[in-house]
Amino acid sequence: MPKNFSTEINNEYFLVCVDESNEFYAALEYACVNAQKQKINLILLYIIEIANFRHWKGVETIMQEEQKSKAKELLNIHLAEIKKNYKLKIKTMVKRGDRVETILKVLKNKRYKIKNLILGLALEGNDTNKIINSLTGSFRKKLNLPITIVPDKNN
Q1: Of 20, 32, 63, 118, which one's alpha carbon is 20 to 30 angstroms from that of 54?
Q2: Which pLDDT band, with edges at 50, 70 and 90, does 57 fall under?
């Protein structure tokens, strides 16, 4: 076997947080193009924020199941679209919790070598910008990887 031939599988990932915003689509396109160029895998993370319905346990359970179903459906749509246009290995995740804390937990997971966190930037106020503000502000010292911020192309 030639010395420069590698049988090693690349286990590095770009992490993209999935939602239904315009800026997400810009971040996803950027991640796919660059992951394919660099031969890196992709993790699509959908975070379900916890609603406070503890006093109505039945309502909370129904809402959680509906949110999980919606998350899986959205991830499957994106997965099919990505596979149609790119040759990438993609892992999908659905997690519950605070968005920033959940992102930090996933980034700290030693199982995945996350090389870059890719986020979309809304040029007009949006919830995604709160994540960016947190991760580039007070939580930045907890991160040891680059964050790529992709502006929404439609604004």
Answers
A1: 20
A2: low
